[in-house]
Amino acid sequence: MVAAPAVLAVGAMAVVMAQGALAASFAVSGTNFQVSSGKLTSKGLSSYVHTDRSVDGKGHPVALLGIGDATLSDICQAASVRTPLGNVTFKLTAGGAAGDVTASNLIIDGEDLVGDARFGTAQIGRDASTLDQVPGVKGEPGAFGLQAGDITVAGVRSHAWSATGGNFRLRGLRLGVSLDGEKCF
To answer: Which residues form the signal peptide (predicted)?
Structure first.
């Protein structure tokens, strides 16, 4: 009976995380990775400045991007990892000819984002604690934030430290590990 409140609290958090209303918090690996897509469209975008931390306590400044219901024409994710055998490239691709990739309540902690973008109903400079386009994506009071009702970005290229999402559908998934392999860009 003593453990019942804790078990209920953990269960409630798991449900909220599964529904995408709360991002899972974890220590990042210390290795950023590339993400690219031919085209990303989404209903809802919220963003604010955040800091990811590695296990060693090192901080990595990022723009936390909360993306509501996203469709991507194709995706590529690649990370270069040092091993005793040399540099290994961990690469995941999906979409393309297999069909669109979809994700809901996707949260990307990115260093940058490059592409040709169109924002609908954009609000830039909004207090991050009042963001409401993507459930659960809010920053600290007084922090700089931005949001949009919808977004389209063509030629997406980004360096990220983490990505989490409520639901992914990866059509045509391919995962490969190779010595000094080719990255996304």
So the answer is: 1-23
